[in-house]
Amino acid sequence: MTLNFKEWEKLNEANVFDKIKDWFSSNFGGSIGKLDGLLYDYKNAELEFVDEWEEILVEIDKLELEKGQAKNDPAEVKKAERYIQRNNQVLVNSKKAHAKKIDSLMVKVKQLIGDSRKLQNYWEMNKSKIDAEVAEEMYKRSKDLADTSTSRELYNTYKNAVLKAKERDIEFRDQYGDLIRREGKREIPKIKNAAQSTEASVDLYGSMSLSDFTKAVSDLTSAQAKSLVSELTKARNELYVQMDLERDALNAEIASKTGSGSTREDAAKKIKEIREKYMEKIRDLRSKITITRKYA
Known about the structure:
Blueprint: H1 6-9, H2 16-28, H3 30-69, H4 74-113, H5 117-142, H6 148-183, H7 194-200, H8 210-217, H9 222-255, H10 261-293
Helix pairs in contact: 2-3, 2-6, 3-4, 3-5, 5-6, 7-9, 8-10, 9-10
């Protein structure tokens, strides 16, 4: 059974989340961009742990099989048990290191959110979705293990995580979708001077929808527009660099492994995901650069 977010998202008002995020971006500026960055770091940390967890469990699975096959050889049984024990300890240490990493990230989240209940709601709603995605990934991988008890336990974890994410998603959209309807048309923030454009462009204007961005830059002077074009271009170039670094790291990791075509297929899939992740942001910045150049 596979649960996902697509079905219930279709039940919500069309584009309501985009409208809500625009509202958050206009009211909280760079804080939303920073929270999105921390959400990205959180998901990466969780998936990195899932990779470690899977690697260790696969090794334990193999050792359990070897132990069963060597039941008439006490020495081999003892050897397998010792390796199993060692891997179990590695798993314990991995969990501790992961928990420490997440705790450190959560300190940054709490400092950024402060006393803002709205930012807390934004974080918790998005985090719950990540938790559900990670739980799904662990459940899928556990189905390849010989020990079916792990899969059964993780399915319950997965199901509960998805249901919780669904509840948080609906609550969030109901609460802030209604808030947007009550407020009606909101004022689009304007750049007051060239210095402000340099400081706020990526955090604030980079998070706007294209329609809101067009309205926001319409009153810019030529100097302000040129400054903003420079900042947006720099942000776009940085995304290209980050995308290349991520792809190079993945290619290096794959090259260091020996194995079947499945490894290459996985690499191709991951490279495609990396490109899609960055190109969405890059295309958005390209459009905004083009719009801003009209006023430069």
